[in-house]
Amino acid sequence: MIKLAPSILAADFSRLGEVIKETGESEADLIHIDVMDGQFVPNITLGADIVKAIRPYTDKPFDVHLMVDHPDRFIDQFADAGADIITVHVETCAHLHRTIQMIKSRGIKAGVVLNPATPVDSIDPILAELDMVLLMSVNPGYGGQVFIPSTLDKIRQLRRKIANLSLDIDIEIDGGVNKDNVKAILDAGANVIVAGSAIYRDADIKTSIQTFKQGMRK
Ligand code: DX5
Ligand code: ZN
Predict the structure, then answer these.
(1) CB burial class (10 A; 0-12, 13-18, 19+) of residue 171?
(2) Ligand 1 atom closest to residue 7's alpha carbon, by position in its atom list
(3) 39: which residues sit within 8 A by CB, 6+ positions away?
(4) Fewer CB within 10 Å, N side or C side of the chain?
């Protein structure tokens, strides 16, 4: 199933509750929440207290993307705050298998994120344990960057692997996705699309999500 996960990183943080409510009333499938620690990535965003504060504004699943060193330290906090999916970067996990088990033990979905320069093969041994793989199509840290075209090959490679093993795993793409490149990304085999600036640039969130989803169906 093809899904859209608007990234609130590009939203107006001064009215986050309202933004979440409006996104919740839209055709969005998930809400993508970018957590950055100023260590693993050169930017700081928000923590579990904010996630907890916005949780009552919608029933849509929260897709929490942890861009933090040693993410194990925070999994319980984000699960308690209401995350439905937690993704961790393979580059931050010395014991990736353990981290994935920690997430799953909370009864929520677990995913792994790969930076643009990290090969798809790096998660071969853990693939069968995952609900989702997130392939970064920009170097994480900021919204509004340009999509890295070599991501398309990684999507095809990963989709082939998943099909060969008859697994049911979502492939999510994050960074620089817009109405002009989204079709190529879906055609390559991705099925969950993160979009930040392409969605929240417009004041009318619901219409912009509706238009973006129409473009995904074409
Ligand atoms: C980047 C974040 C993305 C970001 C995407 O580090 O992980 O989720 O919000 O923003 P756009 O869609 O503007 O590239
Ligand atoms: Zn993200």
Answers:
(1) buried
(2) 9
(3) 68, 69
(4) N
Residue 59 designated active-site: no
Q: What is the CATH number of the domain that holds 54?
A: 3.20.20.70
Residue 54, both tokens? 């916005």
pLDDT for residue 218: 84
Tell me if 148 sits within 8 A of 117, measured CB to CB.
no
Q: Whole-model pTM?
A: 0.98
Which residues have CB less than 5 Å away from ligand 2 (the ion)?
34, 65, 174
Catalytic (active site) residue 34: yes
* Nearest CA residue ID for atom 4, ligand 1: 143
Give pLDDT < 50 ranges for the chain.
Answer: none
Q: Over the stretch 64-78, which tens digit does the pLDDT of each residue have?
A: 999 999 999 999 999
Determine which residue's CA is closest to atom 1 belonging to ligand 1.
Answer: 140
Nearest-atom index, ligand 1, CA of 199? 12
The protein residue with its alpha carbon nearest to ligand 1, atom 9, reads 143
How many distinct structural domains can be found in the chain?
Answer: 1
7: which strand partners? 32
C-alpha 128 to ligand 2 mean position (Å) = 22
Q: How far is the CA of 195 from the centre of ligand 1 (A)?
A: 7
Is the Cβ–Cβ distance between 89 and 113 less than 8 Å?
yes
Can you give the residue range of the structural domain that contains 25?
Answer: 3-217
| DSSP code of residue 29 | S
